[in-house]
Write a structure and sequence with these properties.
By secondary structure, this protein is an all-alpha fold. The protein contains 3 helices and no strands. It starts with 9 loop residues before the first helix and ends with a helix.
């Protein structure tokens, strides 16, 4: 450890305690916000909304338009490839 940061220096110990306290306060706020988020999703679910779909909408809204378009194009491409492969396998083996 570096000199002055070994936990014995009064100022360093106070700084350390300050950092730990700040992080603990932030974590408590995060926990409270996560509880609020669970409650919101619970309300939505109780009204018949599909929570995983709402989460997906939120996730997609965070992305920029170009990133979202590229993701959608890749998803469509991969689905098309898989569907063609499965269709070809069924032509070869109708029981597959």
């Amino acid at each position: 450890m570096r000199e002055g940061h070994n936990g014995l220096d009064g100022i360093s110990a106070e700084q350390l305690c300050g950092y730990v306290s700040r992080v603990e306060r932030v974590q408590e706020e995060i926990d409270g916000l996560n509880d609020d988020k669970k409650e919101i999703f619970g309300e939505a679910k109780s009204l018949g909304f599909d929570v995983p779909t709402i989460k997906k909408v939120i996730q997609r809204r965070r992305k920029d338009r170009q990133e979202l378009n590229e993701e959608d194009q890749l998803l469509t491409l991969y689905e098309d490839i898989i569907n063609r492969l499965l269709a070809a396998q069924k032509e070869v083996d109708p029981l597959a």
